[in-house]
Amino acid sequence: MSYTIHEVAQKMGISTYSIRYYHDHGMLPFVQRDENNNRVFNDVDLEWLNIIVCLRATGMPVERIQHYLDLVQEGDSTVPERYEMMQAQQERTLSEISDLQNHLSTINFKVDHYAEIMKNHEPDSFVPSNLRDTTADQTA
Amino acid sequence: MSYTIHEVAQKMGISTYSIRYYHDHGMLPFVQRDENNNRVFNDVDLEWLNIIVCLRATGMPVERIQHYLDLVQEGDSTVPERYEMMQAQQERTLSEISDLQNHLSTINFKVDHYAEIMKNHEPDSFVPSNLRDTTADQTA
DNA sequence: GGGTTGCCTTCAAGTAGGTCGAAGGGGGTA
DNA sequence: TACCCCCTTCGACCTACTTGAAGGCAACCC
Question: Which chain B residue shows the shortest CA-CA distance from A84?
Fold first, then answer.
């Protein structure tokens, strides 16, 4: 199967701009061109792109991804380094998930807090700011 | 209690650059200056910064955060809009956590895969790339 | 066959959110 | 007085896109 850049963009949930960016920066080394110089993607390209998207989404810089993809192309002798990279990425991602969960509970608290305020007001009865009690609202 | 910009940076785990950036962009409206024009932060400023860090870390653009902070200062009449903003942020964060968890399982798979390869090799016995079996390595 | 639409191309410029360096000032200590 | 350290502002730089301008090629319409 072969795909246009738009099909790939839709499939992967990223923009055509990003795909061109990755390609132009050497991260999609197997992409072909058709007779009009348009990019033509196949399933292997999609797999590579999948890796790129995964690593970018978990915060790996483009330069590191380039290095990782180079290692993949160099073969099994680079497995130990790739192993270390993926382990680092694993830890990084776990800690980012945990950070996000902490932030989420802060946000949950605010949602509940605002819901509570709204429950105690009749609809359309919010007091104007010049009349409100300012002492209790420091935590927003 | 009052704090220097460095103390705040350390407390919040962000750079002094970021703090100045937020201040310069009107997101820390209460920060004072001392007689030498240095920024002086108090506990209320820390609370505001905490909100900023939380919303930024969960992907809210600076402009939206500015708007949110404006709403907070306007008082209770803006509670419904703030409620909607925090609900949106809640959903966004939940879906980002879920995305990260999916990406994490891809990474876990690679870590396990590489560990498996390394287990089946004596140390320092990785084959040079020109001798390896290239057919099985498409998924990196 | 000429015009329009539409998708593609490249290259350059713009953007967000910081990050950093230069230049300079104030204050404390030796 | 010299030195050090931390602060300031302002402007340049950075990453990872994002967008715009200018133009090519093909397909359809009349």
Answer: B111
Which domains, ranges and CATH numbers included, belong to chain A? 2-114 (1.10.1660.10)
pTM: 0.86
pLDDT averages per 10-residue partition of chain A, 140 residues: 91 94 94 91 95 97 96 96 98 98 98 96 59 47
* 3-state secondary structure (DSSP) of residue B75: coil
Q: What is the pLDDT of residues B50-92, one digit of tens each?
A: 999 999 999 999 999 999 999 999 999 999 999 999 999 999 9
Euclidean distance between CA atoms B33 and A63, whole angstroms: 41
Is B107 close to A72, i.e. CB distance below 8 A?
A: no
A15 touches strand D (CB under 7 A): yes
